[in-house]
Design goal:
Elements lengths: L1 H7 L5 H44 L7 H15 L9 E7 L4 E12 L10 E12 L2 E10 L12 H19 L6 E8 L3 E2 L10 E2 L1 H6 L1 E12 L5 E11 L8 E2 L19 E2 L11 E4 L2 H9 L9 H11 L16 E10 L12 H17 L2 E8 L8 H6 L12 E4 L3 H19 L2
Parallel strand pairs: 4-5, 4-13, 7-11, 13-14, 14-15
Antiparallel strand pairs: 1-2, 2-3, 5-12, 6-10, 8-9
Helix pairs in contact: 2-3, 4-6, 4-10, 7-8
């Protein structure tokens, strides 16, 4: 029969096999085409959610959940312009646990062209992007020269430029702090001494030995009389030194006993802070705070007078970052990463501390102090305002950076005019703001 001959004819048997084999081949080709279209949609959606997450991070803290969703959907729609997919649905989640974070997700689907014959009519597409900020927190100590030479400069004095620069820096840091506690700042005006505040006169970390010996009055408590051989009597008054009331102390302290002057050891016997009634006592320091109004008021209180002792300013800047007496920096939340920063600005060479009146001896103490500070994980930015053709400060250069014994030229600034203080503080502020929001 004709049909039987067809079956027996081996020369024609390849045709049905080719027909059957063509089905998966066509299916695979169709799948490749449809999945390629879906991949292109997913790429465009990913770009859209990446952009949306970055945009929403800038104002998420001030928006309600409904506003977050509306703004995210609107922004995404403006960036995603493809028409070969279902209209994407956007969701957004904002959290502040451990760090501030927004997660933006877009879901859509692509209608298949060829895979539909295989029963697959849609390919789902999902894109997600996360923007995290604020997982790093800053502790900043501003160690600011308030010595007499800071009154110099024309048409703007160095102290005036410093006040403007510090106000600007505080504004930058306040803007970078999305949540209270993201950034703490302390202000340490220094001269030969540092003013810890006369209200601390009753604190047990003050050493009154030198102060009591220098401040007080001789009070007559009696007399000593003698009679000579002729019966004439002569009397000499006797006096007792009476220290003044500690309530009359102006708040100034000198360097601690060596070697505590180069450490941040908690006060104890031998490691107390010696009071002094220094006639050019600067404005009182302010411990770590995010009370931006009070910090700005402290800047306004600064005035120029006295001799230069950079080391005592650095020592108290470090104390302000230390979570122990006397300044008790706030405890650090283990959910965050912290960067401890000291910014020291000085316009001159060291001239006087508790022991010395020559720069080299004071500088040697300061180098040891800076090594200890950097070994503790603190980064130092040092700024020399050199308007008097002084030598470049080798000790400020040495102190700049993060590694003990290694100077970091990128963190040392040599300025030659008061106005450069403003631009330099702005540059440092931009860098610190970027450091805080880095993922």
């Amino acid at each position: 029969m004709l049909f039987q001959r067809f079956l027996d004819d081996r020369s024609g048997s390849v045709l049905p096999l080719l027909g059957l084999a063509a089905i998966p081949v066509v299916g695979l080709i169709g799948a490749a085409i449809d999945y390629s279209r879906a991949a292109a949609v997913q790429t465009a959606m990913q770009a859209g959610v990446d952009s949306t997450a970055l945009y929403m991070a800038s104002g998420a803290a001030s928006l309600s959940p409904a506003q977050l969703l509306t703004n995210a959907q609107t922004y995404f729609n403006a960036t995603y312009t493809r028409t070969d997919s279902a209209v994407p649905t956007v969701s957004i989640n904002y959290t502040t646990t451990g760090a501030s974070q927004v997660v933006v997700t877009a879901t859509s689907s692509v209608k298949t062209v060829i895979m539909g014959v295989m029963g697959i009519t849609q390919i789902p597409v999902v894109a997600t992007s996360t923007s995290t900020w604020g997982n790093k927190r800053l502790r900043v100590a501003l160690v600011l020269d308030n010595t007499g030479s800071m009154a110099e400069g024309s048409p703007t004095s160095k102290i005036s430029a410093l006040k403007t620069a510090t106000h600007n820096l505080l504004s930058q840091l306040q803007t970078a702090a999305k949540v209270d506690g993201d950034i703490y700042v302390s202000i340490i005006p220094f001269v030969k001494d540092v003013n810890v505040g006369s209200s601390n006169s009753s604190q047990d970390w003050i050493d009154w030995t030198a102060w009591d010996a220098a401040n007080g009055t001789n009070v007559q408590t009696g007399q000593t009389c003698t009679t000579n051989r002729f019966g004439h009597q002569s009397c000499t008054p006797t006096y007792t030194w009476t220290p003044a009331s500690h309530s009359t102390w102006n708040g100034c302290v000198m360097d601690r006993d060596q070697n505590y002057d180069t450490m941040n050891t908690a006060p104890a016997s031998g490691a107390l802070f010696p009071a002094e009634q220094y006639s050019s006592c600067p404005a009182a320091l302010m411990a770590q705070s995010y009370d931006w109004t009070a910090l700005n008021n402290k800047v306004d209180a600064m005035a120029a007078a006295g001799n230069t002792n950079q080391a005592i300013g650095l020592a108290w800047g470090w104390q302000s970052l230390t979570a122990s007496s006397p300044l008790n920096a706030p405890a650090k939340d283990p959910s965050y990463q912290y960067s401890d920063i000291i910014i020291i600005l000085s316009d001159g060479i060291n001239t006087q501390d508790r022991w010395y009146t020559n720069a080299s001896s004071i500088d040697n103490r300061q180098r040891t102090l800076c090594d200890n500070i950097k070994n503790a994980g603190v980064t130092i930015y040092s700024i020399q305002v050199n308007t008097s053709n002084d030598p470049t400060s080798s000790v400020l250069q040495y102190c700049a950076g993060t590694r003990s014994g290694v100077a970091d030229a990128s963190k040392f600034y040599l300025l030659t005019s008061p106005n450069q203080i403003i631009t330099t503080f702005n540059q440092i502020g931009v860098g610190l703001s970027k450091l805080r929001i880095a993922n």
